[in-house]
RNA sequence: GCUCCGUUCGUCUAGUUGGCCUAGGACGUAAGAUUUUCAUUCUUAAAAUCGCGGGUUCGAAUCCCGCACGGAGUACCA
């Protein structure tokens, strides 16, 4: 078998959609598994849709996710250039070859004429298609005399080159995911291959590039399946059928609710990103949020995406990139579209949060501490992160769940006061301060003095006292083991917080029993 | 409209050659256990008559046919 060479070939028309990211990922996994090459090709044949910054965005997003390339616009390679606009000059000769061999023809029909035809058909409740049935009625090199065609060409009249589908031919595309898909040429239209602006369309450029770049496998979205027969015919027309790449059309990513393909708007409306990175539209200024800025780990995004439409056939769900490369198998890609599930995405992030070392989590948390003006001992921060990371999905949640490790509460949750601060509590809290003052500041000693000697001996309710202490120290009824927290905060800080609670909350009304 | 693709718990899916399927797992949901609280963790539960209707077969989620529904395509866009 020839060397595996795959390409990811996006259009720089905006930010890379998460479905596109998955396509890139599957290509990458396949290439790496087979020791093949991964190519990044930019398909910018439509100059009207070019969006500045999109190409850089694509590269930055894939780099963030750990999807690397062997050749491409950003790194060069032996098969360059890798941007179709930079390859413009080479497409004409291929269009000419098709023209010469009778696989294509010139068409001079003006856009208005085509539009008029469509209207005309519409009135008869039919759809106009430029194909083997209608091309005889149009202005093209099939209907015009050779002299007339030459005259128009010489006079510089605009033209396009269209593919000439043979009549009534069954064309079979072998797809690695779907098996054989057959379509009849009578239903296919004579697609434009070469535009009047001198640029090829996707179809021509794609086939020429895949062939000249020696691409072995085309792994792309399902939206391309309907035009796959044209692509197969192009390989045949060029005489390249023996080296034609294998096709695999990936199922689409669907909206989490309702129907339809996942689209740009869904993300922010439903509270999850549709793009890998934040993106600000250069024209409208409209912002779309990305996974990175939302606090997702690249490993989590990769893992989640890999399992959306593919599964290893085992019950393993957590995969490193290397494990994915080993386990990936095109034949195990599902055929049906997948609805996006935000909760599962969060769960993956939670899993990777646990896998990161306390040190790494602390480093990621540091900017948040800086933002709140906290200057804390590094080892202390690492310890807090280690204790608390299991409670959160995102680093952005760390401050809210750990702030009391760094700053004393300034207010106390009223509901908690009602529930946890019963009559006589100020007396109990003063006793806690006394115990802190008189006992060695060690976990075991405090545990004994508080739980055994004071609470048990006075036949008090353990939870009641400890929860009240928590309210005084934390300000609310959440947190880790109480005495561990006290040990972390230190004797003086704990005392200060308890004293403050006594003075701020005071002795409850007698009816708070 | 036409062409093609698809259809298993709410969601992602296992089930690839028909019988170990009284349809398995994960997320989410609910209940319980653990914990001084919350969270974590653990256990358990509810949850798909395998889109519907026919057929083939001793036996079908798995094969065949029809229908329904969903999706994609139908541009000098990719």
Written account of the structure:
It is built from 20 helices and 14 strands. The chain has 5 domains: 120 residues, Rossmann fold; 107 residues, Glutamyl-tRNA Synthetase, domain 3 (Alpha-Beta Complex), CATH 3.90.800.10; 89 residues, Glutamyl-tRNA Synthetase, domain 2 (Orthogonal Bundle), CATH 1.10.1160.10; 41 residues, Orthogonal Bundle (Helicase, Ruva Protein, domain 3), CATH 1.10.8; 92 residues, Arc Repressor Mutant, subunit A (Orthogonal Bundle). A 3-stranded parallel β-sheet has the order 1-2-3. Strands 4-5-8 form a 3-stranded antiparallel β-sheet. Strands 6-7 form a two-stranded antiparallel sheet. Helix 1 crosses helix 10 and helix 9 packs across helix 11. Strand 1, helix 1 and strand 2 form a beta-alpha-beta unit. It is elongated, with a radius of gyration of 33 Å. By secondary structure, the protein is mostly helical. The chain binds one RNA strand of 78 nucleotides through strand 7, helix 6, strand 14, helix 11 and helix 18.
């Amino acid at each position: 078998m020839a060397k595996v060479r795959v390409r990811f070939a996006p259009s720089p028309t905006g930010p890379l959609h998460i479905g596109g990211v998955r396509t890139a990922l599957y290509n990458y996994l396949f290439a790496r598994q087979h020791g093949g090459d991964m190519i990044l090709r930019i398909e910018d044949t439509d100059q009207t849709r070019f969006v500045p910054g999109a190409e850089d965005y694509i590269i930055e997003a894939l780099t963030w996710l750990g999807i690397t390339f062997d050749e491409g616009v950003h790194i060069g390679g032996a098969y360059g250039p890798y941007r179709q606009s930079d390859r413009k000059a080479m497409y004409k000769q291929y269009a000419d070859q098709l023209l010469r061999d009778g696989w294509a023809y010139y068409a001079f029909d003006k856009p208005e004429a085509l539009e008029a035809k469509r209207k005309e058909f519409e009135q008869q409740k039919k759809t106009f298609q430029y194909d083997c049935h209608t091309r005889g009625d149009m202005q093209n090199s099939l209907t015009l005399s050779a002299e007339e065609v030459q005259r128009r060409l010489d006079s510089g009249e605009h033209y396009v080159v269209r593919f000439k589908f043979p009549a009534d031919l069954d064309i079979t595309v072998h797809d690695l995911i779907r098996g054989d898909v057959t379509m009849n040429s009578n239903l296919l239209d004579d697609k434009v291959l070469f535009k009047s602006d001198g640029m090829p369309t996707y179809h021509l450029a794609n086939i020429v590039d895949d062939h000249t770049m020696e691409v072995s496998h085309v792994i792309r979205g399902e939206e391309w399946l309907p035009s796959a027969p044209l692509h197969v015919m192009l390989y045949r027309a060029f005489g390249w059928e023996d080296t034609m790449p294998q096709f695999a059309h990936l199922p689409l990513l669907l909206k989490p609710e309702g129907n339809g393909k996942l689209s740009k708007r869904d993300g922010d409306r439903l509270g999850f990103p549709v793009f890998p990175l934040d993106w600000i539209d250069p024209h409208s200024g409209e912002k779309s949020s990305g996974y990175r800025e939302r606090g997702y780990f690249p490993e989590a995004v990769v893992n989640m995406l890999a399992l959306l439409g593919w599964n290893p056939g085992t019950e393993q769900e957590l995969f490193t990139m290397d494990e994915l490369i080993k386990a990936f198998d095109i034949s195990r890609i599902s055929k049906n579209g997948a609805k996006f599930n935000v909760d599962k995405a969060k769960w993956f992030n939670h899993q990777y949060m646990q896998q990161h070392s306390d040190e790494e989590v602390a480093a990621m948390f540091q900017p948040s501490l800086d933002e709140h003006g906290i200057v804390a001992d590094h080892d202390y921060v690492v310890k807090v992160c280690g204790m608390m990371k299991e409670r959160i999905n995102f680093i952005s949640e760390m401050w809210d769940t750990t702030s009391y490790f760094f700053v004393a509460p300034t207010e106390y949750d009223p509901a908690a006061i009602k529930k946890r601060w019963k009559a006589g509590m100020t007396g109990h809290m003063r006793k806690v301060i006394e115990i802190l003052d008189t006992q060695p500041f060690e976990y075991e000693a405090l545990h004994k003095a508080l739980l055994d000697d004071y609470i048990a001996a006075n036949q008090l309710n353990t939870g009641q006292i400890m929860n009240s202490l928590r309210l005084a120290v934390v300000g609310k009824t959440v947190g880790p083991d109480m005495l561990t927290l006290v040990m972390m905060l230190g004797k003086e800080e704990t005392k200060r917080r308890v004293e403050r609670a006594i003075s701020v909350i005071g002795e409850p009304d007698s009816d708070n029993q």
